[in-house]
Amino acid sequence: MKVIAAYLLAVLGGNACPSAGDLKDILGSVGAEADDDRIELLLSEVKGKDITELIASGREKLASVPSGGGAVAAAAPTAAGGGGAAPAAEAKKEEKVEEKEESDDDMGFSLFD
């Protein structure tokens, strides 16, 4: 990812066709190590291609990926076996325990009994 980020930074900076040296300079400026193999792989994959077309193509591919995040979160409590009421009951128990702890101002030393 850092090599891709360095490439995009170079393109945004006005360098339409960054070289391996350009990417190494960008990565070196933030103290990141430059992996020559990954840089060469990226440069060979994007050679002769327009970055805006590559980004648009990537967005189309990501749009087809299902992202059922909401359904998974809603199903998680029922999969645990207690339904939605169990977490609420646990929260009430925790509140009661916390109230008891707060009422013991002497921290259990019984100095004022």
UniProtKB/TrEMBL annotation:
Keywords: Ribonucleoprotein, Ribosomal protein, Signal. Plays an important role in the elongation step of protein synthesis. It comes from the Eukaryota. Residues 1-16 form the signal peptide. It comes from Corchorus olitorius. GO terms for biological process: cytoplasmic translational elongation. Belongs to the eukaryotic ribosomal protein P1/P2 family. This is Ribosomal protein 60S. The lineage of its organism: Eukaryota, Viridiplantae, Streptophyta, Embryophyta, Tracheophyta. Residues 90-99 have a biased composition (Basic and acidic residues). Pfam families: Ribosomal_60s (PF00428). GO terms for cellular component: cytosolic large ribosomal subunit. P1 and P2 exist as dimers at the large ribosomal subunit. Residues 66-113 are annotated as: Disordered. GO terms for molecular function: structural constituent of ribosome.
